[in-house]
Amino acid sequence: MTSLKREISPPPPVQGITTGFRLVSYNMLAKAYTRPAQYSHSPFGCLNWRNRSQATLTLLRDLRSDFLCLQELDMYGFYRQNLKKDDYSSVYIQRTGQKPDGCGIFYKHNVAKLLIKQTIKYNDLAKSVYADKVYEENYLQRDCVGIMAAFRLKGAPFNQVVIVANTHLFWNPSWSNVKFAQAKYLTKRLAEFKTLVSKRFRCEEPFVIVAGDFNAKPNSKVYQYLVSGCPGHQSWIANNEVVAYFQELALEEPPMPLCSVYALANGREPKFTNCKPNFKETLDYIFFSPSRHIKLVSVDPLPESSESPDVVSGLPNFYHPSDHLPIAADFEIIKE
Fold first, then answer.
1. CATH number at residue 76
2. Domain, as residue range, for 223
3. Residue 18: which pLDDT band, with cuts at 50, 70 and 90?
4. Which are the contacts of 158, defined by CB distance < 8 A and separation ≥ 6?
5. Which SUPFAM superfamilies would you find in this protein's record (predicted)?
6. Model-level pTM?
7. In whole angstroms, what is the distance from residue 13 CA to residue 20 CA?
8. Mean pLDDT across 68-94
9. Which of 41, 56, 186, 305 is deepest in the core (most CB within 10 A)?
10. Is residue 3 a part of any domain in this protein?
């Protein structure tokens, strides 16, 4: 197998000194959704819960991240208990409508202190200004959720607050307007949360990161909207071959500018983050709002080809316990 890990592993954190942090986003593939008929291409035994759970724990630990934004997390108690041994604390929201999975943010409690959190229930769209009048109320009720949390970084050179948001938007490619409404509601709630954090904790400029499975390709209306407020976004869109009419759409800009870490670091999004025999697309992203106090240092490499030995027959397999790949970014705190 071709290794996809960074050639140089990050050094272990020094207690009391923080110059940066690392964040991972990962759709884990919920236990409830690992139907053998849907993953008949996967090697025998790799879908077994005992095998997958241990492989997932090993992967999460090997990523050595300060923040883990996990989607399709349906065995929250299991992962909370086991990752607690690795100094992780966590916050979690389960999907509405009795769905078994949800979104969780795990954070190293020796790196970050939780200040405040809020949850996002996209079913509330039906009662919001983002509910398009042409749709019936139940059209927007897809039981999708998100979670936002503000953290104070311990040992930072100044009073730095980081807002981390994690979300999972609706999957159906035919319902793009639902995903677009969810993206607009997400940014609205995030902007309000940022204002609240700034006032309550007297932080002039909280750093904002939004991670998750957006179920949107780089040439989608959702992606275009999310990056439309960031300088240089048109060049990223061109590199990702967005069709011309999306570039010509007079989309309103989101309440805050958001940049994609992979587009900024590499000039384009990854070739794919979700890999099955008949579907290989980029759906997962880490976005951030530019700040003079924090800069993007690096992103983890991903396969450039679906013929890479560890993904060639599609996922999950014994190398990757989910049909998604984890994405990761390292940030550095700048002291002016």
1. 3.60.10.10
2. 20-333
3. low
4. 293, 335
5. DNase I-like
6. 0.90
7. 10
8. 98
9. 186
10. no
